[in-house]
Each structure stands twice: as structure tokens, then as C-alpha cells.
Amino acid sequence: MSETIALLGDEAVALGALHAGISAAYGYPGTPSTEILEYLLAEFEKGGPIARWCTNEKTAVEAGLGVSFAGRRSIITMKHVGLNAAADPFINGALLGIKGGLVIAVADDPGMHSSQNEQDSRFYADFALIPCLEPRNQQEAYDMTREAFEVSERFQIPVMLRLATRLSHARAAVNVGAAQKQNPVSKTDERTRWMLLPAFARRNYASLIEKQKDISGWSAAHNANKLELPAGGKTDLAVITSGLGGNYYEENLDDLIAQRSEKQHSNLPARLHIGSYPLPVNSIRKLCENAEKVLVIEEGQPFIEAKLRGILNQSVTINGKLDGVVVRVGELDPDNVRKSLGLPPRSSVLDVIKQKHDDISNSVNNFAAGKISRPPQLCQGCPHADSYETIKKVAAELDSAPNHPTVAITSDIGCYSLGAAPPYSVPESIVCMGASVGMAKGAADAGIPYAIGVIGDSTFLHSGIGGLIDAVTANVPMTLVILDNSIVAMTGCQQTMIPSDKLRDLILGCGVLPEHLLELEAKKQLIDENAARLKKEVEYRGLSVVIFRRECLEAFRKRQKSKK
Ligand code: SF4
């Protein structure tokens, strides 16, 4: 039985996992991956397999390992930077000889539409020595997700599914098949198989290395890796594409053929599209056997290109992101790929679209440079606005010596990152999830008298809490401001791990003194009063925590709507 449905790339992954018979799905929200788990949560509510948001990506992977040890299948979802938080169980998971299929779907964000960097998750899969599948369209997203579970169980290893924004968030028709049953619960007879104590870990690592040959063989034969050699087998140019880079190359192929025939090149470039990793080394060598140069078009960082140096002989010129032939910063698109192929710019409707795209990019750049008057802003009436007004007032009162830094304000990842923009311009640093706490502690240790960390409630639970325990232990003079809007607002209002009324107990449990834990209502009318109380805590020469609390307006609207 099969049917055709229009699905986002993320939804195709979710449905592929559902049809592959998963028993559980875990994740932490993050653009562009959020919609995978949202889809599975909706299925869970209708009686489908368990789906849950987790405190962070690390705990999500750990839960997936537990499901796998019970012989059942699970999918873990996250954005690329989430994999940094999950790196410990992710890397070690490869050594375990897992049982039920475990698929880690990671959505990269080239172009940084909603992220702090452009890191490429294929490096992580390579580092962990696990297989990776990279779909180039929604159909492959569905098919490869299903396949990834088979591969995971065949090699007893987690499998990465690498996605990118344009695939995750674009919709296309997908032909879907019948759902499989869930695996029965089972355990292993080998008592030490899942224990990474040194003696067992050495054995498991040797086994991981041993299975690499079979994994490479599987990847080499994968039908997503398509080698196209021109008639006669000889050509001056070889092209390697991967992921969405393959689509952009094909969009320009007719013009490339026309240009080459004008220049009397007798044949097409040779071409290899890569959709599975480890790299299909023999196909790459065959592709480049007679080529003078190879051009690599891959979305993300120059992963394939860097590996080619160890695969090809010196006589082949390698062009790509490392030598600037392909654009290195930002996303690929049909136009910049066209330029890499040496084709003249198109004058068509695509130019108009590109112009719009450039206009948006320019607006963002101008915002970053402080050149425009209407940067992206917090929603009108957002509680964070009142909290930032309060913090700004306190900072202005304390920062009396402009040439000698007296106040450091660090912040974090969430809607409240927009407090860096005018009219607030409050935080001076935003790095990664949870970092505001450690950075404020470091500033205090370095001798800044008034160090203030600003973090959201969900980000605090994700990875700020460890920093708070460090700060309590050292009793550094700093104030952690927690902006509690009772929701994970930035990614579409997912539930936080614990409700607001439990936050106080949790913070006290970390060792914060009750007399230095304030809970304030984030309200415009209370700015002066709140500022006076916050200032007192910032001036206190020990650790204090101040919670500014008011529900996110968007969450409030959604809650009201769901009541109707
Ligand atoms: S979604 Fe909520 S938290 Fe985010 S800016 Fe809007 S009101 Fe503020």
C-alpha cells in the first residue's frame, strides 16, 4: 500500500520514522529541526509512539540509547549546534554495539537563518565513525529515514541523518509506504556490551574499527551515490555534488552543456552525487581518473573537498570552497553554483528573487552594523522588554565610570537575544546555550564588579544550571537574571521541562540562599521598583538570582485559542 502526501522535509523524516516502527522520539527544539518532533508529538497525542521534548540534546540521545538497549527503535532530533551539547553520548554511542535502531536527525543551518554558526554535522558523523545519510529532497528524506533504522540495526551503530534548512522547511509530494510494527522488547545476553569501562571500551572500540570496512562497503554500494561518466569515459571536468548542491547543479546543467558545446568540449562533465557516508572512495577515484580538475559543490563546510586530498593524486586540481571557487560563507543557491561553474549570470525571474534575497541579507547586515532604524524586535508588549528596561536602568546607575568597566552583562539563546538590538542594547555577549551563566562568573572572577547573566527559563534548564552550581560553589559576586516566560518561545512555544512554580525549589536546591533569590513580575509599571530590588542584589557581594516572570504573549494567545 502506498500513497502520495505533501510533506515538509522535517515531516517526511517524522513519517519515515513512524513507518519504520519507532517506539520513541526525543529532541530539543531548534530551527530548522523542530517540526520533526512536533509532527511526532501530534501522533503521540493520537496514541502513537512516545514523543517527548527533553531538557537538552544530551538527555535526548541518552534516552534513545536506553530505548535501543531494550531492542526498540527511536529517533532523536536536534539542530546542528545541539549536537555540541549531545557530543558525549553521541560519540560514545558508536562504541556500544546498540540493539534497536537509533537514528539521530540533525538539521544544519547554512546561512545561519536562526543559528550562531554554520557547523556541518557530517564532521561529527565522521569523527564518531558512524554512517551518515544526506537526503537531497523530501522523498529521500522519507526513504532514507526508514533505511537508516535498518542500517543502524545491521551494523549495531547509531546512524546520522543530515538535513539542511531548505530541505527541512520546503514541502513536496512524497510517496509513502506501509508502516512497520514496533520491535518487541528484548535485552542482550552479553552483560558487558553496553558498559564503557576501560577493559570493555577497548574491546568495543576494536569492534567499531573492525566494522568500518563493512560500513564503507555499504556506503560504496548505496544507490544515492550516482556516478555518471560521459561516453568514452574521458572528460576534462569532474563534478562532485552532495545534498542540495546536486539540485543546484542540475538547475544549471542545460546552460553548462550549451556553453561546453560552444567551446567545443566534446562531452559532459563526469559527475558523482554523494548521498551516503563514509565517502564512496572507489567511485571518486573512477570519476576523476581522466579529469584534469574536480569541482566540489556541497552544502555546508568543505567536508568532501578536504577529504579528496587523501584520495586523489596530486595531478588533479581540486576546486571548491577551500580555494574560493564555490562560495564558502552562507548557503549555496542556483546562482552562486552557476558562478562556480563559470556560467554567466542569468537575467530572469530568478534575478528578481535573488534581489529580494539580497535585500533581506542587506537589511540584516545593516541591522548588525547599526545602520537601520527598524531591526527585528521583541513582540509588542513582550515581558522581556520590561525586564531589559529594568536591567538597563540598573546598569546605567552602576556603570558610573565609562573608562573603567564596572558592569558586564552576558546573555543567551532565545527570543531575549533580541535585547542586544536597539532600543535595549543590553547584553554584550551571546555565545551558545547556557553560556551566559559561566561568562558572567568569568567576568566576576576577572574583577568586573557587577556581573549580570541573563538567561531564559528553558535555556537555564537546558544547560545553564551547571554554570549556576559552579557559581554557587565559588560564591562569586554575580547576579543571574532568569527571564521566565513559562515556555520555549523562540521555536514556537513548546512546553518547558518544569513549570514556573517549580523553578524556585530547583534554584534553592542548587544552593542559592533564599534571601538572595527574588521573584519579580516583569511589568512596565514595576520597572522602577524592580530596578531598585535588582540593583540591591547586583551590589550584594555574593551570588544572587533574580527571576523576572510573565507569560510570553504568543503562548498566552495560543492558550486562549486552544480553549475555544
Ligand atoms: S514570542 Fe513571546 S517571548 Fe518571544 S518576543 Fe514574542 S512575546 Fe516575547
Strand content: 15-25%
Outline the biggest β-sheet. Answer: 7 strands, mixed
Envelope shape: globular
Q: CATH-wise, what's the superfamily of the largest domain?
A: Thiamin diphosphate (ThDP)-binding fold, Pyr/PP domains
Strand order of the largest sheet: 3-2-4-5-7-6-12
Mean pLDDT: 92
Would you give the CATH topology of the largest domain? Rossmann fold
Radius of gyration over all CA atoms, rounded: 26 Å
Please characterize this protein's 3D structure.
This protein is an alpha/beta fold and 564 residues long. It folds into three domains: 3-220, 3-Layer(aba) Sandwich (Rossmann fold), CATH 3.40.50; 226-340, Rossmann fold (3-Layer(aba) Sandwich); 383-559, 3-Layer(aba) Sandwich (Rossmann fold), CATH 3.40.50. 42% of the residues lie in helices and 18% in strands. The protein has 21 helices and 20 strands. Strands 3-2-4-5-7-6-12 form a seven-stranded mixed beta sheet, with helices on both faces. α2 links the parallel β2 and β3. The radius of gyration is 26 Å and the shape is globular. The structure holds iron/sulfur cluster (SF4).
